[in-house]
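Lab meeting, action items carried over

1. Structure of the two-component assembly. Owner: GW. Status: complete.
Input record:
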Amino acid sequence: MTSVAQRIIAAVSEVAGGGAPLHAPVFRGNEQAYVDDAIASTFVSSVGAHVTRFEQELAAFTGAKAAVAVVNGTAALHVALLMAGVRRGDEVIVPALTFIATANAVSYCGASPHFADSEPGHGGLCPQRLRAHLEEISDIRDGLCVNRETGRVIRAMVPVHVFGHPARMDELMRVAEDFHLAVVEDAAESLGSRMGGRHTGTSGLAGALSFNGNKIITTGGGGAILFNDVQLAARARHLTTTAKVPHPWEYRHDAIGFNYRMPNLNAALGCAQLEALEDMLRSKRALHERYSRAFADVEGVSLMDEPDGCESNFWLQTLVLDEGLEDQRDGILEALNAAGFMSRPVWGLLSEQPPHAGAPRADLDVAHSLARRIINIPSSAYLGEDA
Amino acid sequence: MTSVAQRIIAAVSEVAGGGAPLHAPVFRGNEQAYVDDAIASTFVSSVGAHVTRFEQELAAFTGAKAAVAVVNGTAALHVALLMAGVRRGDEVIVPALTFIATANAVSYCGASPHFADSEPGHGGLCPQRLRAHLEEISDIRDGLCVNRETGRVIRAMVPVHVFGHPARMDELMRVAEDFHLAVVEDAAESLGSRMGGRHTGTSGLAGALSFNGNKIITTGGGGAILFNDVQLAARARHLTTTAKVPHPWEYRHDAIGFNYRMPNLNAALGCAQLEALEDMLRSKRALHERYSRAFADVEGVSLMDEPDGCESNFWLQTLVLDEGLEDQRDGILEALNAAGFMSRPVWGLLSEQPPHAGAPRADLDVAHSLARRIINIPSSAYLGEDA
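Predicted assembly:
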């Protein structure tokens, strides 16, 4: 084992104790009680008190005007992109450095991802590099941003708040305005993360949240779409419930809709998890502070901190190896996992994944560099704390 | 109120007592216990003991070689159609008389539904009329069935087991063979329904089940795909889990996959529901017998019985008004619902719904006639029985 691997394991061990998953859910509140309530009510499916309550509480917590609860974050992105007008033959700006769902949701609309680069500090879509790329490859024609090379409309951008660290939304919104792009935020990882007090997922047209089992709170499987426009939210909710026109018994559908509604059983779990969210955020920030101290003197690696002026939820604690140490990444991962500290690299760049290999892309130098140097370490709420 | 409405309400009242929902879930077994187990294990999401067990028990119950648990029946149909090779620009034979999910799943593949007619007795896809239609409008070219009018390949057919009554699969399989069509069964409504001992959903390439809250058993939201080929099942499971190539930490995806895996929380509910299934089938058959006696002498309407040689699960009890009484349907529905007996007509024909109005279609005389005469009446397990 190399000395940098040894130092990293020592620092993780100091904080996390003896072995830990990457990110495990924590159920210490009303989870069983609320789920039992849902079962006792027999309303476990697409209608029920918990799903309505979950949507209202999500809106209140994030400051969005409305939230639409769906089966998962991928479904949230899909419907958000449709609401943004993304259609067959369009292109959508997506960072290459993100989970594959971001690009897949674009594909479900019949559109193609157009990969853009990250900024080096926190891995989010880089506004400067995106602006320079769009200036180089696009024209504005009839109020639409057109890719000169492919002739296709670039309809939207999807900033991702990677590992819970807010992307530079103020600058990205200016790029979006200048190039006539709709903005759908992929806030799957960033529930509880704010920029200057504004919650992630509420700057653009819509924001997608995820409550998969590995997220800061979970509904088993689940997601939500945040909107600042209640009419858009109502239309999105309609699309997620097979686009059925309300009627006591008749079946009429006015669009090709989806079966994307979050079941009430899952929302019941989510209501209890939301009650615990503030304390989990406190705990995850405290974990970051302990990791910061443990890694302060570890040479060769830095711990990602929250961006200036932002509050991260610290979903996943993130180590970035110094440049020149790329070749050690896999050895460090093997050593960490062998020691019981479940750790992983960042996703393989989407621009390199077979299903999206033919998609247009900007220069991706920063994303390539980060992708070879990032290691996520155990990050669960309450890790190493006394229960 | 017309006299036929009065007679129908009297007969329903005799069986169901004072007011009843159309179909409500029943949780009298291990539902809370298993769901609490899943929460206590913290495995509530896409991996867990219950989802594996649920798949195995579904396969054992249906006689399929493998079952793949997914978020809902729509997702099951979507992936089953992809596994059947349905691609952009194809057509797929779908009965006009079915829930809109059957046609939407075809649209998600970029294909178009091609609507076919029903047989008058039980509302399933009519093999004779389908054969005559295909003979009229298609050619076999290079081993593919080509619609002469549109020039598109008709790739597959989706028989639906309407209200749990098995469609005529033996004859439909011969049509499929003669016209080179893959067969995906929409068995969303027919868990527990068999044809000569063979479970619905296991005759063709794949079968889609639903466990929505209104189905014979529920997982909150959920579905499954039945396969007789374990390799196909493994590939389908791969597609439902983002097509991620197995690796302890690396993220590689070899196709545009989906986030369609049933969460373990929902599967826990499903495991308990499966334990209760045989008794619910017994109860629903007994309900049918009581309705049969109550409606034996009611003029103007007949109760749909199971097809010869088949065992129906009697998911929804179905009244068919005599021809000539079509105009009374809405009045009867209003009277039944006003009396507290939640009742509904069959779905509006998909060929008439705006999103599918431009799709090719056969003559749909039988479907049109049935669509104006069907009324589903309260059908829950244990309805009118002492608990």
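2. GW to write a short summary for the group page. Key points so far: Chain B touches chain A through 68 residues (CB under 8 Å). The mean pLDDT of chain B is 97.
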